[in-house]
Write a structure and sequence with these properties.
InterPro entries (chains A, B): Glutathione-S-Trfase_C-like (IPR010987), Glutathione-S-Trfase_C_sf (IPR036282), Glutathione_S-Trfase (IPR040079), Glutathione_S-Trfase_N (IPR004045), Thioredoxin-like_sf (IPR036249)
Distance between the termini of chain A: 31 Å
Strand content of chain A: 5-15%
Low-confidence stretches of chain A: none
Largest interface: A-B, 43 and 43 residues
Domain GST C-terminal (chains A, B): 90-214
Structural class of chain A: alpha+beta
Protein name (chains A, B): Glutathione S-transferase family protein
Oligomer: homodimer
Largest sheet of chain A: 4 strands, mixed
CATH architecture of the largest domain in chain A: Up-down Bundle
Pfam families (chains A, B): GST_N
Order of helices and strands of chain A: EHEHHEEHHHHHH
CATH topology of the largest domain in chain A: Glutathione S-transferase Yfyf (Class Pi), Chain A, domain 2
Domain GST N-terminal (chains A, B): 8-87
CATH class of the largest domain in chain A: Mainly Alpha
Radius of gyration of chain A: 17 Å
Helix content of chain A: 55-70%
Number of helices of chain A: 9
Mean pLDDT of chain A: 95
Chain lengths: 214, 214
């Protein structure tokens, strides 16, 4: 039995790979674990069957036998801990890689989510034009720090890890804004992530759902 | 040698316990591990010595011998994994507790951080009055879901865990807004967290720094 993840029946981004199932697909591809996908409609996200998997009505979830998880961060960490390939064996290096997962999710992603909010949920508000540059400047604080930390390194802390997987996934949300291009070392870092065969398979798999070839 | 954490020399909240060192202090108190604190000025956060600990110039950091960590989530998880008392022994229950840590940090906290931004960084903007209710409504979506999940339970998933420690810490940011009181089961949940002797010691320790008795 393969693990089963949930994904949007139709992703709001139309197949750009920004829905959080892509992070989990990517992790499963990196470790070479086949998986099954159950697609969920927006309506079904609010129904008891899905809420029994996650109280927040989100995707992805992860089911493996009688054991269910939610939160893409927790799922990726679980995959990284139970299969080979996403965490170093050395315990200090392993803890550092996990630190980068939290940094991606709790320091870098929140201001980026605020930009998503500004563009999508508040894009028609009278303050949108004046406020968006403030939101972007808060993101730039984090991009500048991360860029300065990375310098010429390929990955955050030695070899590619679950920390990079999460950081690249978070930064990909900025692709459309053009902001990544302001920081060439970050743009190159994200491109290195996207070039990984495991990412390409994950991206293709979500695209096949969201923008099937006609 | 005790582990050393960093904290603000003077917390922006004046001792309300909302700076993220409180989460780490609480975790260390729960597991009974004494710790030392190095206080850092706002200026020093941006200096090379601190940036060598964390590229994002934040507090807290965690040093234990030659091993350093940043990100309160990562530090709390490290403490929970290396000392007894914050994670169940059963592997499924342990993974679920970690899931709740991620839910606190990546699903519940981001909209709450947006309210902090609205109140503090954008409190003087022309849109503040009209926008704040939208921000609060996005928080209420999560509070309603969490409240509905908790029902009458004392903690999120059986016994108190690192997941509860993080969720209570995140919800405490809403205390001043009065929003917790709209969800009596959540208000009671947060109060149960605050009543724990380990939380009280952690709170008192940060208060002693930020509002020393005259």
């Amino acid at each position: 039995m393969n693990p089963i993840i949930t994904a949007f029946e139709r992703s709001p981004d139309g197949g750009k790979g920004l829905a959080r199932d892509t992070r989990v697909r990517w992790a499963l591809e990196e470790v070479g674990q086949p998986y099954d996908v159950r697609l969920v409609s927006f309506q079904a996200l609010k129904e008891p069957a899905h809420l029994a998997l996650t109280p927040f009505g989100q995707i992805p979830t992860f089911e493996n036998g009688n054991f269910t998880l939610f939160e893409s961060g927790a799922i990726v960490l679980h995959i990284a801990e139970h299969y080979e390939g996403l965490l170093p064996k050395d315990s200090v290096a392993r803890t550092r890689a996990i630190t980068w997962m939290f940094a991606a999710l709790n320091t870098v992603e929140p201001p980026i989510l605020d930009l998503v909010t500004a563009n999508i949920f508040e894009g028609d508000k009278p303050w949108a034009q004046e406020r968006t540059p403030l939101v972007k400047d808060r993101i730039r604080v984090r991009l500048r720090q991360l860029s300065s930390y990375l310098e010429g390194a390929d990955w955050l802390d030695g070899a590619f890890s679950a920390g990079d997987l999460m950081m690249v996934s978070v930064l990909l949300r900025l692709r459309m804004s053009g902001m990544l291009d302001e920081y060439p070392s970050l743009a190159a870092y994200v491109s290195r992530g996207e070039a990984r065969p495991a990412y390409r398979r994950a991206f293709a798999a979500q695209l096949a759902v969201n923008a099937p070839a006609s």
